[in-house]
Write a structure and sequence with these properties.
about 475 residues; alpha/beta; six-stranded mixed β-sheet; about 25% helix
Amino acid sequence: MEAIRIGNDILIRWSIFKKEDSSPYFLEGKDIVVTMSSIFKKGYIEDFKVAGNTVEFMFYGKDQKHPGIYSLTLEENKGRDGMKTVDVCDAFKLVPKSCLTNCESKVNVELITIRLDSALSVGGGQSDGTSDYNSLANKPSINGVQLVGNKGLDELGIQKKGDYQPAGDYVVKGDLESLQQLVNTLVSGDASSAIESFNEIIAFLANVEDSETLAGIIAGINQSIANVRSAIPTKLSELDNDDHTVKDADYVHTDNNYSSEDKAKLAGLSNYDDTEVKEGLESLQRLVNTLVSGDASSAIESFNEIIAFLANVEDSETLAGIIAGINQSIANVRSAIPTKLSELDNDDHTVKDADYVHTDNNYSNGDKTKVSDSLRFKDIFTATSLSNLPIAYYSIKVTLSSARALSFASTPYEGWECMIDIKNTGSSVITQALPNASGWQCDVASITINPGKIASISVRYVHGTYVVLAKGN
């Protein structure tokens, strides 16, 4: 298997040979479908050429979105009698870097060509089949791991069954734990004790005699200011959410808002209990409000002013003015330290919404599935062929100049239905055949559509069968 650096145009030539005698199996004039698949997606190859027993098409670098192993499937008479299918399970591999390819990197890269050969059994019945799974050439695989022997979920890259807490709950509780640690660092676990410590400093200064030196007092205040600098919160994540701010570290602005139309489609929603989170936030809010308020920079500046004042005081002067000044500075600290998210710099991708109101009507995975599966009559799919029609639309508008085989791109869910309106844009009458093979039910074999006229086909999928009602003109 060739490893190719993603982002390069690739020319793929796939030759088909008969399994019985290795002779070429000619594809010209046959109704064939080619698909290319990876673990991320499967897509039909619309633009391919057939020459003899070879299918040729381009896989452009601009269309290459995901690295990984790619497989090819060719189907003849898909969904009809005489259907034949062949695969190349490991056709090629796209890698994210040139150094991971199995060829030397070149500055002037030429068009990369992949040549593939496959053997197709053209015999009837089951004569070429096998009941020995281990002898199969193309065994199935999951996430690139071939299903041979006993494989565990970890080996197949499948998450084990279990009850998983919503991701948003982990984020909020993690933020609470981080905020609790910061508050504990600032107040040593108790806001009342922190305030009491400031009061003890004031009482000590009140008892200092004029004859004592102020050097020790100034040194202690210097250390207290240093402690305040390291403990005062400066980030949104360190304070309580008081202004309806919604936090989302991965937030990217988008206009894909939850519309009234989406809301109208939902029958009812549910959400997890956030009582514990609310109680934790309220408890932390009370601790922070008791300890600080206002602007952190102003609080530190007030302490610096105290130091400068004390440095100029003589031993013979009274300490009454000093104590009064310290009392005022402590009051300034309380009023200056920030307590709200709106007073700090937004450093953690917080999204603000002043009109935010909590509701338990969250958009669940079940609701998302409901919206995805809903069909709207006003959504119309336009096509120029009846083959591989999508099942995501109720109304399908088709223009034809000649008859085409009717088929769908995938199997719909039970109870699905659609309406196909066909307009004849040619100059002659179209005799449109209707499918009536296994899995299909139709009361007529075909309908006629005159030039410029419109015919309608109704298809409903019930009991595992496509039921077709058609009206020509």
